[in-house]
Structure formats: structure tokens, C-alpha cells
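Lecture 7 notes: from sequence to structure.
We start with the chain below.
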Amino acid sequence: MLTDYQLLRIPGPTPIPPSVERAMTKPMIGHRGNETSQMIQNIKPKLKKVFGTEQDVMMLTGSGTSCLEAAIVNVVHPGDKVLVVATGVFGNRFTKICEAYQIDVEEFHVEWGTALDPEAVKAHVQANPEIKAVFSTYCETSTGVLNPVGRLAQAVHEVSEALVIIDGVSCMAGVETKMDEWGLDIVVTGAQKALMLPAGLGFVAASERAWKVIESNPKRGFYLDLTKYRDNLAKDTTPFTPALSLLFGLEQVLENLETEGLENVYARHRLMRDMTRAAFKTLDVPLFTKDEDGSPTVTSLKPIDFDAEAFRKEIKGSFNLTVAGGQADLKGKIFRVGHMGYCAPTDVLQYLAAMEIALVKVGKKIQLGAGVAAAQQVYLEQTQQRELEGAK
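Predicted C-alpha cells for the same chain:
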């Protein structure tokens, strides 16, 4: 086996396109010079399209978690009551951050592998009018669930002034987001997933409602104070030294997304999800989420007649193909396949073929090629349908 060849199919970090790798090797420039300002000017409108907003999208040097923390510290105070809709490990991360700031946090528990119910959350918020903010993941990376965050925001805003704050780290730029239209108050994402960059950049946008709350908050921290990022962004600069090489890469990523067209990007992710799900259904490997809840960026499987960890070990050893395991209570019980960012339907067919061989080697009785054939059929049906629609 080639020692320097690997297939990375985890839900982040994800493979980096060659054009982006090349962009990140550009010679360093001054972070307060005209070249950097011009780059930020180029980036700003394209990031807004990914978020579906007319609001500024702030860029922080840090992981997505840095922006989750910024979203919290800028809008709530110690002692404030907030609600975290916990659909998995990363929903729980909101809770841990809130607890670090002595915020009165309550969790609204949803069975892992199931999407949240907006009406159930609405009823809870209505019964607890002291709640200042509602937090949820968009894609819950640990389970592969895509939560209906647009309907959540609509439901909450019908009965409350609470802000709706969304972690979109593992799906934005792979799933359509309409921040303004849906009424999302703060949306966060990171660089290392569908945005196809190394980790190290976080992004956060806030609604007009959220900005009013932020501006009235006297304790916004220092590095995470979003007003500093907004005020500097208006001047095409940053409040602190940015990760310039990552910005070089981001500029190229956004150009690539624009060239493909965001609608085509989102359709590609849905297609890869549907191909993957169809294959595993045919192979009789149980999906952890319902079809209507499955994220276009990550698919989780919960095997019952073979060991998930033995399977992961087999595909790693035989093909240098890496998929993710389960986390927390799901450790050893599920495996997760990432299909986002720099990933195409041909990659899906490749990893499915390798996985079929590994399934046989861990004792699963299947017909080799059956899963790949199911994925091929989905590809044909969806691409032909799009061609027909495009011809109208």
C-alpha cells in the first residue's frame, strides 16, 4: 500500500483542493497593507452568500469553537437563562461553554439520531419566558442529523424575544443556509469542513436583533468582542493579526464555490448523501438517522451484525481509508462517513467499493457490487432529472 496515499472521509477536517493548497503557499504579505484589504473586500460579499445574509460575516482566527464562545459571551451574562437543544455531542458543547461563564443553562434533550421538533421547543420556551437565547446545531456532527433550524427560529420567535443561535460548523457551504430569511440571530461555522480549509478560521454573523443585544452588553470579552471585528471589517481589516495563509485559501475556496454555483454545490452534497444512504440500505447496514433527518454532509451507520471499530480498522489497514467512529455514548456503536467539501460522486463510488470489501472481511454477508450499483442508480436518476429540469 502507498504509505503517502490516504482517503480521508471523516466529517472534518476534510481534504483540501489543490488550487486551495497552491493559494496558501503564496508569499507572506503585510496584514495592514492594501493587498490584505483588497483580499478582504473580495471575501466579504462571497461569505455573505454562503450565510444567506446581508449582515457582516466576521472572521476570527481560531477554531469554530472560538466563534461558538464568541456567540455566547457577546449576548448573555452570568445568571441569564438559556436553552440548549441537545441533539448530540456538539449540542452539549454549547452547554459546557455556558457553564464556564456561569450562565444558567438548561438542556432540552432530543434522542440522539433524531432531529429536533420545533413545536416542542416552542412550547418549552413559551412556558419559560425568562429564556434569553436558544442554541442548536444545524448539522449535529456526532449523529449525522440535520436540524430544521429555520423552522426552529420561526417557532421560537412566535412566542419569545429569545435569540436563536446556530452552530453550522459541519454543514455550511454544503447545505443551503438562509440566515436572514429564516430569522436566525447568530450563525457560526468553521473552515475545516465544507469550506475545505485547514482548521484555524471561524466565522460568525449576527442579525440586527442580535447586534442590539451585543451593543448593550458591557462585558463582551477582549479577543472575542464581535464589535471589534465588525468595526474593523467595515475598513477591510481585522482587529488582530489574521491567519493570512488561511485567508489566501479562503479567497480561492469562495472563488471555486462561485464557479461551481452554490445551488450546484448543495445539489452535489444531497446527491452524495443519497448515494451513500442507498448503498448502505442495499447492503443491509442500518442507518442511524431517518432519511428526512439525514445531513448532506455526513452519514452515520449503526451496524448490528459486525463490529463498527473492526470495520474502521479494516478499511484503514487495507485501503488507508479513514472514517470517523462514534463519540460519547455512541463510541464503538456507530461509524460516520463524511461526504462534504472537496468530495465528488466519483469519490463516493470509490469509498463504497472499498467498504464493500471491508464488510466481507469483517464477516458481513453481502453481494459485492450491490451497494455501488445502488449508488450508481441514484446518480443516474438525480443527474438525469436535473438535466431535464435544466432543459425546460
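Points to note: The longest strand covers residues 131-137. The radius of gyration is 21 Å.
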